[in-house]
């Protein structure tokens, strides 16, 4: 993660993208009307779907937008950042985040003024007065090696194996009306972890077949309970399950199915006190610039499931984004 510094030049034009599908954004266009009326340098859009998003970003680029305010959650930010290389092939705009999703991990870690009209006003005033701070963060790029014509996607948090199962369970709870907010979704994640520890979920206990290759190291093949990777330097609620050495912008975690001493292993991991026996017991973590995964199950990137296809996926950290905040 790059150092936080003050910006030295106000952006020439500012774009605002509002995710119209976000529950928290249902009233945003009306709430923002007065603020936008005071700031004619801002172009606002609510693209519905990826084709409209691409058109919006192309127009912003043509109009010289160099600061992009994204009003949405992690998924909205992922879609915007993934679409930006088409509109901005050379220099991507700086990003400011208005956290309006169910989970706002990137906003919490990288910085956000909030989600309402007052937060928008705060960003715009800071931009006009050259008082924005900036944080440069590597992006987690996911590509399909056997499909070079397919566009990669960019985000911050990757998960597979039980991570995908947990997400599926949480989505079912949201659709059923039982859960709506991040804290309640976290409760579902906790219950799913307890089911694994108590051996009450056969799928999690058995794991999912996967081959993981970190850089030029030998591939590791087997059944996996959990695989995670991120380019962030912290997660929610103090959670940080990564450790180990290595070079590169990607922190990764790899846990075998039915690892030794699961309760002790997870406890040591979450307390950031990994023990030497954990490596022999099926717990691995470190840093790298590239990870190749062969898997048959969908994976999760910033809250959404994607299919891996037959050639698997390649995770890399070649690009970065600059996030600004007042």
From TrEMBL:
Protein name: DAGKc domain-containing protein
Organism: Acidisoma cellulosilyticum
Domain (DAGKc) ranges: 9-146
Molecular function terms from GO: kinase activity
Pfam families linked: DAGK_cat (PF00781)
InterPro entries given in the database record: ATP-NAD_kinase_N, Diacylglycerol_kinase_cat_dom, NAD/diacylglycerol_kinase_sf
């Amino acid at each position: 993660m790059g150092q936080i510094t003050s910006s030295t030049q106000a952006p020439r034009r500012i774009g605002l993208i509002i995710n119209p599908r976000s529950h928290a954004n249902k009233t945003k266009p009306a709430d923002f009307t007065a603020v936008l009326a005071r700031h004619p340098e801002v172009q606002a859009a609510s693209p519905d779907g990826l084709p409209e998003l691409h058109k919006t970003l192309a127009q912003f680029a043509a109009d010289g937008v160099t600061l992009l305010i994204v009003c949405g959650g992690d998924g909205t930010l992922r879609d915007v950042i993934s679409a930006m290389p088409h509109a901005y092939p050379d220099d991507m705009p700086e990003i400011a985040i208005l956290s309006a999703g169910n989970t706002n991990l990137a906003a919490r870690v990288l910085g956000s003024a909030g989600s309402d009209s007052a937060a928008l006003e705060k960003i715009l005033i800071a931009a006009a007065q050259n008082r924005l701070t900036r944080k440069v963060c590597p992006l987690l790029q996911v590509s399909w090696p056997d499909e070079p014509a397919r566009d990669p996607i960019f985000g911050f948090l990757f998960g597979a194996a039980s991570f995908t199962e947990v997400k599926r369970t949480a989505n079912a709870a949201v659709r059923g009306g039982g859960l709506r907010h991040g804290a309640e979704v976290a409760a579902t994640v906790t219950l799913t972890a307890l089911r694994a520890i108590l051996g009450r979920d056969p799928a999690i206990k058995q794991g999912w077949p996967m081959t993981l290759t970190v850089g030029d190291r030998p591939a590791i093949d087997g059944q996996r309970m959990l695989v995670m990777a991120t380019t962030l330097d912290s997660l929610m609620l103090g959670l940080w399950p990564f450790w180990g050495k290595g070079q590169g912008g990607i922190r990764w975690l790899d846990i075998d199915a039915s690892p030794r001493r699961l309760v002790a292993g997870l406890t040591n991991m979450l307390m950031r006190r990994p023990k030497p026996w954990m490596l022999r017991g099926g717990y691995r973590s470190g840093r790298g610039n590239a990870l190749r995964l062969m898997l048959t199950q969908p994976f999760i990137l910033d809250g959404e499931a994607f299919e891996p296809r037959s050639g698997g996926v390649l995770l890399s950290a070649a690009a970065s984004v600059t996030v600004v905040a007042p």
